[in-house]
Amino acid sequence: MSEQKKRAVILLSGGLDSATVLAIAQHAGYDCYALSFDYGQRHNTELHAAKKIAQQFNVRQHLVLPMALDAIGGSALTDEAIDVPETLAEGIPVTYVPARNTVFLSIALGWAEVLGARDIFIGVNAVDYSGYPDCRPEFIEAFEQLANLATKAGVEGDHFSVQAPLIEMSKSDTIRRGIELGVDYSKTVSCYQADEEGRACGVCDSCRLRKAGFEQAGAGDPTNYQ
């Protein structure tokens, strides 16, 4: 391991938020190890985007793990029988993937322990859209406690930190920060139902939030729409 830098595992979906988090971690001086999941989502374009982003930031390693969450279903993102909504509804949306962030962070924790990394970065946000229970500060704090209770490293005194630098930032603030750090948002895919070429639908919740974020940031929207 580099004596000058600490290692960190970055959850990298290929979307706007995770790309910004990777840039933030790298700017903070971490050796970055990117982790993506092929979890049975509707499209693989976000994984192609993650690969491009990882290459742009020259991460130490980009690991893509298969994980068939579509086998249990329960989400519009993993079950073709459930339509992706085009209007914002009350409560937890059907695009919530059951326990996804818990599962992803658990794998990131295991890899971090193997790598000797003690920091895990995740791009959750509780300001612009707080419908997901696993995007709240309480969840992040609870998982960090779990990480330090349930690992050899934690029990032996090494402290794991789960970092969510975007959790209290608006989408426009996230975009401004990413632009400062050189994120090429044209490489990112946020749409829940992007086509095979990575073009966004422009009408799902994620597209609406992204579009509004660029408008409020006063930045040109580089998204490739259908």
Walk me through this protein's architecture.
- Keywords: ATP-binding, Ligase, Metal-binding, Nucleotide-binding, Queuosine biosynthesis, Zinc.
- This is 7-cyano-7-deazaguanine synthase.
- The structure is a single chain.
- The protein has 226 residues and is an alpha/beta fold.
- It has a single domain (7-217), classed as Rossmann fold.
- Helix content is 35%, strand content 11%.
- The chain has 7 helices and 5 strands, in the order E-H-E-H-E-H-E-H-H-E-H-H.
- The protein has helices spanning 16-27, 45-56, 100-115, 137-149, 152-155, 171-180, 205-217, and strands spanning 7-11, 31-38, 61-66, 119-121, 161-163.
- Strands 3-2-1-4-5 form a 5-stranded parallel beta sheet, with helices on both faces.
- Helix 1 (16-27) packs across helix 6 and helix 6 (171-180) crosses helix 7 (205-217).
CATH-scheme architecture: 3-Layer(aba) Sandwich
Computed structural class = alpha/beta
What are the secondary-structure elements, in order, as H or E?
Answer: EHEHEHEHHEHH
Compute the CA-based radius of gyration.
17 Å
Describe the sheet with the most strands: 5 strands, parallel
Number of helices: 7
Mean pLDDT equals 93
Give me the count of strands. 5
Strand fraction band? 5-15%
> According to CATH, what is the class?
Alpha Beta
Report how far apart the termini are: 44 Å
User: Which bin fits the share of residues in helices?
Assistant: 25-40%
Shape: globular
Instruction: Count structural domains.
Output: 1
Quote the CATH topology.
Answer: Rossmann fold
* CATH homology superfamily: HUPs
